[in-house]
Design a protein that fits this description.
This protein is an alpha/beta fold and 202 residues long. The chain is built from 5 helices and 6 strands, in the order βαβαβαβββαα.
Length: 202
């Protein structure tokens, strides 16, 4: 089955591809189906935003679609940046990640070590060619460090120290990350549902 991934983020596209290809799906980018679109994320939750994006791509292509909405929730900041993770600092383009990380560190400068718990959240919306919808969620828990570490990953990965590993998400290889990431966990939940439904991956 061909599935259109509703994202312009090359990193997310690759993560989705890496995991769904194992299940026999051919994941197409927006570019591959001739779409140049950035769907407005008007939802108040990750689930709502994922569904908004998947529905829009399904409507435009009539193909199965998959969308992820994900971000970071820091408990000491009442769940910030949450659904605003990608636009936390209000910066676009190549400098966005650095600006977001700077703002996060600034907002946490007075938060003690034992209060820096956070989690990455991913909601995955999958829409079949017949319009049937599935939404799953995945999480990974950790704490926010005091400085960026690691050269891999993107977004808040260099600041997020994974529980039990004492490494940031950016210090993992893509293979290691795909085994434990919030997106991997949400996709694993999706896979379980698809297997339970006896969906054939043709």
């Amino acid at each position: 089955m061909e599935v259109v991934a509703a994202t312009n983020n090359k990193n997310k596209l690759q993560e989705i591809r890496d995991i769904l290809q194992e299940m026999g799906y051919k994941v197409l980018s927006l570019q591959q189906v001739g779409l140049e679109i950035d769907v407005d994320e008007t939802g108040k939750t990750f689930r709502e935003n994922a569904l908004i994006k998947a529905k829009e791509i399904y409507k435009l292509t009539s193909k199965a679609s998959i969308a992820d909405d994900s971000g970071l929730e820091v408990f000491a900041l009442n769940g910030e940046p949450g659904v605003y993770s990608a636009r936390y600092a209000g910066v676009e383009g190549d400098g966005k990640d650095k600006a977001n990380n700077r703002k996060l560190l600034e907002n946490m400068k007075n938060v003690p070590k034992n209060k820096r718990q956070a989690r990455f959240v991913s909601a995955i919306a999958f829409i079949f060619p017949d319009g049937k919808e599935i939404v799953t969620e995945g999480y990974v828990n950790g704490v926010i460090g005091y400085e960026e570490k690691g050269e891999n990953g993107f977004g808040y990965d260099p600041l997020f120290i994974i529980d039990g590993l004492d490494k940031t998400m950016a210090e993992l290889t893509s293979t290691e990350k795909n085994k434990i990431s919030h997106r991997a966990n949400a996709l694993e939940e999706l896979k379980k549902i698809l297997v339970h439904m006896n969906i054939k991956y043709e």
